[in-house]
Amino acid sequence: MRYRLEILVAGRSQQELAPLQQLLHQQGDVNISVRHIVNGHSDPLHNVHPLPDALVLVASENWEAELAALTERPATQRPPLLLIGYKGNENLIRAAMRAGARDFFTPPIAEAEIAQFLQQLMRDKLAECARRTAHLTAVINAKGGSGASMIAANVAHILATGSEHRTALMDMDVQFGALPLYFNLPPRNGLVRALEQVESLDTVALEGYVQPHRSGVDLLASAPDELVSVADVPESRVELLLQVMSQAYDDVVVDLPRWIGGSTAAVLEHADRILLVLEQSVAHLRDAKRLMSILRQEIHVGAARITVVVNRYGKGNAVELSDIRDALPDHEIVTLSNDFRRVSESINIGTPLPELAHKAPVTRDLVKLAGQLREDTQHSRKKTGGWSLFGWGRPS
Ligand SMILES: Nc1ncnc2c1ncn2[C@@H]1O[C@H](COP(=O)(O)OP(=O)(O)OP(=O)(O)O)[C@@H](O)[C@H]1O
Ligand SMILES: [Mg+2]
Questions:
Q1: Last residue within a domain, chosen from 100, 130, 160
Q2: What is the pTM of this model?
């Protein structure tokens, strides 16, 4: 993989900015933009979108305000800083450290110094990409009430308990979501709150919005306590949230409502695996075919990323497995046993199936399904060396 570093050089003195820009240019694989700070905002990153990989700031007589503005930014909104200034000013060095400066150079800057800074930046960038990149599973019903929430909740529970994987469960059904109750947790709307604050959200701040369950699942919930619809949620906010979650967790499971639009399409686009849930009836099969064609043709999801889950499976039902295979070819099909008593009890008392009935056939089926997702994760990590970031840049 080749990566071009984006460097922003900022300062108040044109005379100092020009040679610095030239020096950086000589280093090859870097894109350099220059910001000549005149008056107005002292934050060198004000209105800079997207953020560069590093900020090279030439300290001016206004350095206190400039560094204070950088210090106030949340960690995720503050790229690595290289400060150019004159030695001997202890206050400047202290303020630079508070603003997270990585290095401090005094002019004239030697070429070797700047080359080393860029090499380190590149190494860190590559390491960051390889570090933690969650596997994203999206669960969606072909027809309301097919069991998507039950599956999302139990699969997340199994993923969290069966390994060291940090697992999150996100309830995108902001209008009718009830996942906290599946875990006997109080209804809370952490998801909408996190989306409101997403611009300043980092992995530490995210902890304030999730509800931890004893199994290890962190629930980012929806509670139908306010008039928010999933259609009101901007897609760009969901993308940002997914990026933070991908850094914080190994596995993220999303329970999607049966509505396809900007915000839900964003999840589906980035999902490593989509579980499309249906039951064995003609109406379910018809809706599943329709949903499949939306996923394939409109969202351009490749067939290999979609698993068809036949819930409440039974032999001799009106629609057989062979009918489903014929109607939805090219997709892996898995079945989950029908067990109304245990599933209802599990939801009613808020105890996931592995805790309530770990030997029941339906639980075993769910364990098998979660096992396939775990294999997915290992497979994609091996193939990409960890470079997944929810499929950003991955072919469909
Ligand atoms: N494998 C199963 N065996 C028996 N009953 C099941 C099974 N899975 C789900 N159910 C029943 O279906 C009901 C709905 O499932 P679930 O709670 O997952 O809602 P949902 O499909 O997400 O619904 P919605 O479309 O409203 O979000 C459950 O209350 C349960 O009674
Ligand atoms: Mg549901």
A1: 130
A2: 0.70
